[in-house]
Specification:
This protein is of the alpha/beta class. It is 24% helix and 25% strand. The strands form 3 sheets. The protein has a 9-stranded mixed sheet with strand order 3-2-1-6-9-10-11-13-12. The chain has a two-stranded antiparallel ribbon with strand order 4-5. A two-stranded antiparallel ribbon has the order 7-8.
């Protein structure tokens, strides 16, 4: 049996126990790293989630990008438990509260992203991740479904507090999409390569500008 439900429950509890001051500090560091990534790779368009209370905050990141004229696409949950991405240009006028799901979402009148590979970078929320960058989300499968159905080939970058790293490998199935990187307040993770175990070390380090990448 898959261990994803067990890991999800464990790390949802971990996340709920984080102090407000810790989360605020984590948010500031992750925000700086994501803005640095966007500038370094000259992103002209990308997709990103609208954060809930216990997720790394994305609203300041979005606002900064919009001021620079960058196209930003955010998810909208639609019928049949599916998701589509909408282009927003203004945080005040283009978003509304979904009172049923208790989440912030784009208005349905916003322009829809018709071709998923029009963007080449997507910032994705998660509840937990492992060293292979398998991801556990909230369990609805919105992102895995969208990524598979749209044959998305761009970069998939998770945003997470470092406390959400699972030492236990996540039981991923054929429909679970691995991340390319995970940005935390401590490290930038790349997938761990099993063959490296032959060299009597578990983690390799290299420098990513002023950040440390862990693989």
């Amino acid at each position: 049996m898959s261990n994803k439900n067990q890991i999800r429950e464990k790390f949802l509890k971990t996340r709920s126990f984080l102090s407000k001051s810790y989360k605020e500090e984590v948010n500031k560091i992750i925000e700086r790293k994501v803005n640095h990534y966007i500038d370094r790779y000259n992103l002209e368009k990308y997709a990103i989630y609208l954060s809930t209370e216990n997720e790394p905050n994305t609203l300041n990141i979005i606002e900064t990008s919009l001021k620079k004229g960058i196209e930003v696409y955010v998810p909208l949950i639609i019928e049949d438990n599916k998701m589509e991405f909408k282009k927003i240009t203004n945080l005040e006028t283009d978003l509304e509260q979904n009172k049923v799901l208790n989440i912030l979402q784009p208005k349905s009148t916003c322009s829809t992203l018709e071709n998923g590979n029009y963007i080449n970078t997507m910032f994705i929320p998660l509840v937990a991740f492992d060293k292979q960058l398998n991801r556990v989300g909230m369990g609805k499968g919105f992102y895995d479904r969208w990524l598979n159905e749209n044959d998305y080939i761009g970069y998939k970058i998770g945003l997470s507090a470092s406390t959400q790293l699972s030492n236990e490998s996540i039981d991923a199935d054929e429909f679970d999409v691995k991340l390319d990187n995970v940005i935390t307040e401590k490290e930038i993770y790349v997938p761990f390569v099993e063959e490296e175990q032959e060299f009597d070390y578990d983690v390799t380090y290299s420098v990513f500008n002023d950040e440390t990448i862990v693989g």
